C-alpha cells in the first residue's frame, strides 16, 4: 500500500522497462510520467533525473521485478542523488534474494550474495572454486539457458553440498527444489524445457574429510596425486576454507616438487 501511495504522489517514475511498469500503473489507475532507466542508458539518464530533483520534484525508481540495485539498475542514480544531498528512501517490496533465503531450508545467519556468475564455463568454475571456501551460504541468480551448465559445474566443484534452487518466486509457477547439484540437475533434465528465473543457494559442506589437514599438507597431498601446481593450490584452498588468492600467497613461495 505504501508503494502504491508513493507512486501516486511522485512527479516522475523512472523504470527499467516502461512497458512493464505501465502494466502496474494501469492496474491501479496511476497516471504519472515514466522515463526509461536501464543498464544501457543509466549513465546519461541519472544526471537528468537528478536535475528533476533539483527542481524540487519527487522521483520514484522501480525495477521490472524484485528490488532496484539488487542485480538491477539504479546504483548510479542513488549514488548521485545521495552525493547531491537528496534524501533516498527505500520502499520495501518483493525480492527474490530474501524470498529464496527464507524458504531455502539452509542456514542463513550468514550468507554471501554474488549476483550472477560468469557466463563462460571456465570462468564460472573458477568463481565457484573461489566461493567454495566461504563458511556461509552462497546465493546467486541464474538465467534459464545456463542453469543446467551451472549445476554441472557446481556438481564438479562442491559435490554433495546441500543446494536449493528456487524458480519464479512469488509468481504463478513458483517452485523450490532441494537436494544436491546432481539430484536437482537430474530433475531439470527430465523436462521438455527449463523456463523462468532462478535463485541458487549453496549450503556449507556437510562433511569435511580433509579438515584436519593444513593448507600446506593438502597442497603436498594433491601434488603427490599428480595434479598440476595451480590445480593443487585451488584444491588446497577449498579444503582449508581460504580464498584462492590467500592460498596462492602462502603456497607459491614453497619449493616446487623435487626442488629440495
Short structural description:
With 260 residues, this protein is an alpha/beta fold.
Account of the 3D structure:
This protein has helices at 2-9, 18-27, 42-54, 75-83, 96-103, 121-131, 147-158, 181-189, 215-224, 229-240, 244-251, and strands at residues 12-15, 34-36, 59-62, 111-116, 137-142, 163-167, 175-179, 198-202. Mean pLDDT is 90; it is low at 207-212. It has a five-stranded mixed β-sheet, sandwiched between helices. Strands 2-1-3 form a three-stranded parallel β-sheet, sandwiched between helices. The chain is an alpha/beta fold and 260 residues long. It has eleven helices and eight strands. The protein folds into three domains: 2-83, Tetrapyrrole methylase, N-terminal domain (Cobalt-precorrin-4 Transmethylase, domain 1, 3-Layer(aba) Sandwich), CATH 3.40.1010.10; 96-202, Methyltransferase, Cobalt-precorrin-4 Transmethylase, Domain 2; 208-260. 42% of the residues lie in helices and 15% in strands.
